[in-house]
Amino acid sequence: MTDTVAVTPAPVAASPAAKKSPAKKKLTASKVKKTVALHPTTAVMVTSAIKELKEKKGSSLPAIKKYLAANYKVDPAKLAPFIRKFLKAAVANGTVVQTKGTGASGHFKLPVAEVKPKKKAVVAKKKKSIVKKVKAPGTPKKKKLTTAKKPAAGEPAAKKAKKSAATKPKATTPKKAPAKVKKPAAAKPKPKKTPIKKTAAPKKNNLIVLLKPLELATSVLCADKKATISIVRPIISSLLSNKFKINTSDNELTVKFKSIVSNELSERFGFGIHNDNILIGKPKVSVFACLLDPRHKNLNHETSENVKEHIRHTVKSLIQSYEETSYENDHGQINKNTTAMDILLGEADISYNEFEQYISEIQINHNLDPCMWWKEHETIYPTIAKVAKNILCIPASSASSERVFSTAGNIVTSKRNRLNAKNVSTLVFLKQNNNI
């Protein structure tokens, strides 16, 4: 009895040790399950990121990291080495294609070529099945021999075979018919497009040729550093007589364009029918400025002799008025340059002599600078030079003044709105004359 009692307590002592080990195993298993439940593996996450990003050139490593950080509870900095290892291994296996870069850097894309051969295989199988079915109606004689031996039971089977053979060729024949109908429909729109292109191109070319001289005229008349007021009438007269003269070879579009432009220019600047309007009242500055320009002083652009005489008379009266003011000082006294011979014999008509001598001068080339010519001949024609300086400085258009306003607007801004007026004028002057 004592032996049995001594044996029983031994297993009781061993039971707590046995109970402790499964408890530890359960705790470790629960911990492992919790960590796995937070996010899937890097392979699954990276492949899903590449799929859903859907970039044509492939997804980059930083883009994949951003996607993982946004959609999974993951720190991309800690997972960076695992992502690189997976990408290298996937590129080596062929599960991921690397479009750019080497190693883990670059752009990655899932292979698309695996989907295409499946479709081709399906189509091939279908074709094979269609070929087999077509062969079946080609051998009806063998089936008829078998059905002839069986008197009653084989008759319905033969009828079914005939029906299936009759229906199958009907399904194959209509597929070829629409393919033949589509070919002439595609060829019809081609001849319609060609005549439109052929007719539109010459119209554009004609308009470009007609508008080119107008573009050159505006660029010359809007210049800043050249005398432009004396060029207005010579340029307009050359446009009317040469560029916009209607020829027999012109088409309807060019004739219409030339007639409209020539009528507008002649009415605005007084050429042709409207040439007599210059004689009424005082002429415009652009009319008599040509006489003070040594390039156009012969007035070859004017067709009427009455207009030429009228221009010469107005310029001569201007020179006389300037000469009278030059003889008197600011205080109204007689000029000290008068000599004894002038007092005894009378003062010579200097203005008349200067004007006649200036008219007899040879007209210079139109490419030369009139300002330089007047600088060289200022001592020979002092009074005419003063008149020329005051008139030739007038711009032909408002483009130069608009440029000055735009520069002033760039200088005086919302952040620099307290500048003095003198400082603004000096800054504008320096900006406009910085190339001198």
Description:
- The chain is mainly α and 436 residues long.
- Helix content is 66%, strand content 2%.
- It has 19 helices and three strands.
- The chain has a three-stranded antiparallel sheet.
- Helix 3 packs across helix 4, helix 4 crosses helix 5 and helix 18 crosses helix 19.
- The protein is elongated.
- The N terminus is likely disordered.
Question: Into which percentage range does the β-strand content fall?
Answer: under 5%
User: What's the total count of β strands?
Assistant: 3
Question: How many helical stretches?
Answer: 19
Radius of gyration, in Å, reads 51 Å
Strand order across the largest sheet:
1-3-2
Gross morphology = elongated
Question: What string, H for helix and E for strand, traces the elements in order?
Answer: HHHEHHEEHHHHHHHHHHHHHH
Q: Which structural class best describes the helix and strand composition?
A: mainly alpha
Uncertain spans: 1-25, 27-35, 121-136, 142-154
- Summarize the biggest pleated sheet: 3 strands, antiparallel
Roughly how many Å apart are the termini? 133 Å
Helical content band = 55-70%
Average predicted confidence as pLDDT = 73
Question: Quick gist of this model?
Answer:
This protein is 66% helix and 2% strand. It is mainly α and 436 residues long. The chain has a 3-stranded antiparallel beta sheet.
